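User: Here's a structure from my thesis project, written as structure tokens. My advisor, Dr. K., wants to see whether a designed sequence matches the one we expressed. Can you design one independently, without my sequence as a hint?
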């Protein structure tokens, strides 16, 4: 077969095969629990067994699971369930395509059915994948299982081959349709199969390029695939898949805001609910509803099929959970806010009495069974206080951050800022509670004269707390440290900067820095690595937000990712977070499609996952809706993949976490009755007006193996003819398991991806070079396949073998051009290998010297100085004088200053305002029509033109006024961000509106309550 560098079309079936009980060897008298057995079975890979007479002769391979059997024939795949039989035909395919089992699984299959021994089958092999070579000219087809016994299939398209040749016909489906999201739905009776529309991208020149593609109908029961223009010499990937998803809610409004995972992979979720029938569990701490709006805490099994425990948390007032953490013992910690006088506290807790002022923050700790409250405490003063972030150290100390209006918020002497800023308003806080919840180990304000809030917190191995949030305090300034990356406030008057602050184990400042440009910027989530580098994400509207390398920002509202070095003095990486939006309609009316990221997580090899929400144009009329997203970035933050998640309603992505296997868990809330849930989820039906959701996304990491892998081995692919070859898979596993966990290995992989494509192109054109490379790869493949589990040994020996290969490639390429003699070529190969291997070993030693940060930093981008930030602002504002706060309400607005007004949104809205109730957005020929309780207007690229001020008239806003900024952001982004933040943080409702009238600009402040 002709060699080729392949393009990959990974076409997932979003179906999970039902589980069955697996036998398990146990001591006499011990039997597996039903849930344990199911989990054990689901952890097994889906296996394909060759047909050795156990099925129709036309069948080549069979795969079985309880409730589903898959038969693979020459050009057909037949899926048999209890309800129906569905046949998928590969139309126009080569009936003589060679079907091979790949990746043999351990063990053997024995079939002893019937009394006739001649029909018994023993010692049958089983395979993880089945590959059909040349199913179309230049196109291979592979079937394989995904985690939790799901099924997926890939088309592997060679350069010059046409993916539009792929046509699939279906028999047995009652109806076939394309959903609004581009998924292919096959309805069979009461059931349906969802063939998901994946993200399409390529790696070209070391960068990721988004490609538009999707299903197309080609008849009543026939579909094809279309892909926009792409580089046919590079891999084309359509990936990843949503493998598991579940609703979580009742008949009311349910919103999940945070997620955490334990070492066993169990999933912990918190948020708030108004549902009287929220799915709680018997024996949990709080099985029955108490107030109008309660917090909830849920522990789900790893496959999202079982609620291990589920509780309401609260009193007779309103509560909301906003952050969650779990310790090594399985104890669960939650923070949020409450206005209940009878919130459940425990004897000996630090603060057992509600302090007043609207809300108090709270912290609770539940035991691993979810049945016992180990401690519960208020945390607040006489103003309003909310807890927004929590992290737990190895000793069980809870570290909490949030925002407070209380000048008497409980702090400790010796902390970084024990007293509130005189004349200030809202301040961020950071509090460290002991394991019993009975005492403060430290507690401090963080803030200046403006509004400041801590949105998220993360802990290093050394117990340093990293906090991010937003600050509107240029003077007196937010407490920044000398020598930090940015010591000068960069935002506009009345706007915000993000901040990043590191606090020692006793609450002293390690470093503290502003982070922002000349418009508004806000930090919303933070993570930290073993070296002490902080990864921060949030939202910016600054065109001059600090960026590294070739990355740039625009003056639209967009998510950002910034990695700070361990001392907080420079940037390692800073860039916008691209969601890969492919909208093509109504671009002239596009309001900027703002995106907001509110969650961040890192996996074991350094890939970064960012969650959030984006307003998107959908359909021909460009109807606006909000979709949740997760963006994956590789450890260098250069290559990205985006997964949008949602249905036809509005869907908000909030918390994100990633397990040791690289599975990504996203939580949020949805108004979509057609949200892409899976059959095994704990709740498969939409419960009410708004439901929480939990989604697991597999095969998402940029450096994971398996089908749909985006990081194929270019040279091996060229040598062996296909990225699906067994040898290529072995090398991918070696790269992921052995090289990527080491800084030196990552450097080697990065170098490989720079030089690999060019070498692959040379190799693919020469049979001699292909044979030579296969010979050079043989010892490395042998070593990698036999040394699994011995990572250190494999690393040092493997890099030596890899070095031999690199040297071999260099010499082979040179030999073709300069006709180098064979002996001299061999000598040069081994000299090159020795030099490269020695360099990698030395680099790896440097990587393990934890105290020498410079050795690690030398492998990264150079830091960017603070001079990249322009602290100036081009807008001149005319501000009104402050007036007495004691003014009477006017039409629902209470005046608290000449240009400062408070809008009361109604009962319950202060705790959990509903975006859809507050705002309606419709496209028109003139622009987007914005309709809300506060005012109506037309949103264009030039701003929001007010058509009906409604309640805003009391603040002096008139029809014809042009709103040019909201909280320092452009109107579209500022409007979206203000409402998203208000959902999460009820005390964030201060909205500064910059209004232009007759060429004069003034600023109005509206406080939404």
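Assistant: Designed independently from the structure alone:
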């Amino acid at each position: 077969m002709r060699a080729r560098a392949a393009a990959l079309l990974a076409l997932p079936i979003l179906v999970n095969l039902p589980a069955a009980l697996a036998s398990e060897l146990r001591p006499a008298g011990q039997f597996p629990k039903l849930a344990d057995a199911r989990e054990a079975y689901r952890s097994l890979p889906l296996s394909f067994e060759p047909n050795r007479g156990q099925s129709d002769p036309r069948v080549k391979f069979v795969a079985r699971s309880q409730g589903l059997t898959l038969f693979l024939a020459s050009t057909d795949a037949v899926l048999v369930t209890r309800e129906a039989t569905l046949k998928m035909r590969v139309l126009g395919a080569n009936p003589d395509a060679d079907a091979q089992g790949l990746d043999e699984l351990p063990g053997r299959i024995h079939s002893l059915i019937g009394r006739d021994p001649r029909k018994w089958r023993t010692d049958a092999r089983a395979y993880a994948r089945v590959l059909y070579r040349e199913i179309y000219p230049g196109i291979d087809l592979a079937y394989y299982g995904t985690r939790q016994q799901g099924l997926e299939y890939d088309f592997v398209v060679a350069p010059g081959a046409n993916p539009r040749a792929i046509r699939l016909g279906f028999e047995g489906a009652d109806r076939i349709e394309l959903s609004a999201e581009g998924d292919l739905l096959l309805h069979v009776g009461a059931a349906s199969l969802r063939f998901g529309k994946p993200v399409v991208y390529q790696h070209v020149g070391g960068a990721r390029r988004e490609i538009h593609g999707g299903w197309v109908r080609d008849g009543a029961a026939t579909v094809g695939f279309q892909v926009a223009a792409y580089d046919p010499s590079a891999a084309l990937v359509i990936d990843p898949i949503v493998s598991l998803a579940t609703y979580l809610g009742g008949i009311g409004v349910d919103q999940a805001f945070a997620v955490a995972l334990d070492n066993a992979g169990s999933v912990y979720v918190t948020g708030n609910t108004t549902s009287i029938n929220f799915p709680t569990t018997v024996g949990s701490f709080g099985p029955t509803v108490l107030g109008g709006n309660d917090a909830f805490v849920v522990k789900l099994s790893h496959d999202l099929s079982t609620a291990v425990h589920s509780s309401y948390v609260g009193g007779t007032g309103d509560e909301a959970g906003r952050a969650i953490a779990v310790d090594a013992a399985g104890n669960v910690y939650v923070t949020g806010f409450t206005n209940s006088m009878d919130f459940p506290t425990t004897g000996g807790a630090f603060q057992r009495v509600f302090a007043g002022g609207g809300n108090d923050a709270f912290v609770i700790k539940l035991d691993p069974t979810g049945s016992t409250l180990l401690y519960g405490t208020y945390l607040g003063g006489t103003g309003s206080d909310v807890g927004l972030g929590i992290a737990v150290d190895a000793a069980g100390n809870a570290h909490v951050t949030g925002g407070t209006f209380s000048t008497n918020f409980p702090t400790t002497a010796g902390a970084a800022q024990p007293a509130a800023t005189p004349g200030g308003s809202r301040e961020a806080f950071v509090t460290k509670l002991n394991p019993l919840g009975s005492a403060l180990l430290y507690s401090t304000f963080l803030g200046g004269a403006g509004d400041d809030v801590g949105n998220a917190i993360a802990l290093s191995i050394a117990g340093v707390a990293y906090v991010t949030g937003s600050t509107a305090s240029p003077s007196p300034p937010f407490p920044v440290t000398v020598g930090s990356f940015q010591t000068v406030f960069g935002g506009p008057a009345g706007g915000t900067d993000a901040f990043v602050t590191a606090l020692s184990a006793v609450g002293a400042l390690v470093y503290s820095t502003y982070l922002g440009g000349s418009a508004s910027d806000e930090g919303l989530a933070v993570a930290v690595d073993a070296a002490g580098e902080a990864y921060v994400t949030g939202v910016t509207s600054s065109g001059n937000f600090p960026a590294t390398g070739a990355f740039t920002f625009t003056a639209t509202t967009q998510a950002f990712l910034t990695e700070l070095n361990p001392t907080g003095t420079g940037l390692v990486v800073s860039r916008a977070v691209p969601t890969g939006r492919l909208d093509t309609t109504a671009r002239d009316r596009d309001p900027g499609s703002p995106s907001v990221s509110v969650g961040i997580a890192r996996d074991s090899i350094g890939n970064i996952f960012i969650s959030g929400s984006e307003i998107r144009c959908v359909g021909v009329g460009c109807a606006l809706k909000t979709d949740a997203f997760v963006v994956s970035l590789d450890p260098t933050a250069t290559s990205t993949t985006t997964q949008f998640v949602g249905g036809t309603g509005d869907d908000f992505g909030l918390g994100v976490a990633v397990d040791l296997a690289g599975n990504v868990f996203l939580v949020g809330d949805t108004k979509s009755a057609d949200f892409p849930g899976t059959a095994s989820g704990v709740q498969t039906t939409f419960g009410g007006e708004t439901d929480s959701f939990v989604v697991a996304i597999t095969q998402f990491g940029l450096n994971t193996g398996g089908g749909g892998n985006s990081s194929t081995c270019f040279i091996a692919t060229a040598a062996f003819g296909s990225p699906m070859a067994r040898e290529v898979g072995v090398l991918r596993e070696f790269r992921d398991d052995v090289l990527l966990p080491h800084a030196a290995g990552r450097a080697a992989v990065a170098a490989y991806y720079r030089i690999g494509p060019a070498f692959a192109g040379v190799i693919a054109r020469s049979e001699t070079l292909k044979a030579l490379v296969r010979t050079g790869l043989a010892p490395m493949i042998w070593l990698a396949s036999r040394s699994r589990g011995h990572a250190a040994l494999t690393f040092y020996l493997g890099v030596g073998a890899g070095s031999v290969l690199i040297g071999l490639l260099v010499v082979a390429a040179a030999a073709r051009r300069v006709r180098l003699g064979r002996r001299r070529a061999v000598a040069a190969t081994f000299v090159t290998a020795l030099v490269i291997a020695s360099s990698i070993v030395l680099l790896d030693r440097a990587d393990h010297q934890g105290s020498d940060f410079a050795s690690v930093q030398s492998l990264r981008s150079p830091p960017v100085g603070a001079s990249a930030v322009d602290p100036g602002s081009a807008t001149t504002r005319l501000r009104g004088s402050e007036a007495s706060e004691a003014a009477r309400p006017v039409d629902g607005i209470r005046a608290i200053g000449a240009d400062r007004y408070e809008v009361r949104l109604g009962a319950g809205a202060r705790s959990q305002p509903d975006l859809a109730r507050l705002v309606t957005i419709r496209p028109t020929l003139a622009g987007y029509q914005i309709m809300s309780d506060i005012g109506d207007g037309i949103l264009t690229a030039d701003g929001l033109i007010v058509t009906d001020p409604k309640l805003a008239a009391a603040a002096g806003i008139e029809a014809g006024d042009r709103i040019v900024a909201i909280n320092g952001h452009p109107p579209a982004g500022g409007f979206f961000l203000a409402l998203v933040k208000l959902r999460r943080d009820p005390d964030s409702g201060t909205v500064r509106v910059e209004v232009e009238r007759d060429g004069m600009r003034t600023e109005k402040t509206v406080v939404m309550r």
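When you compare it with your expressed construct, this may help: The chain has four domains: 7-239, 244-698, 714-857, 889-1008.
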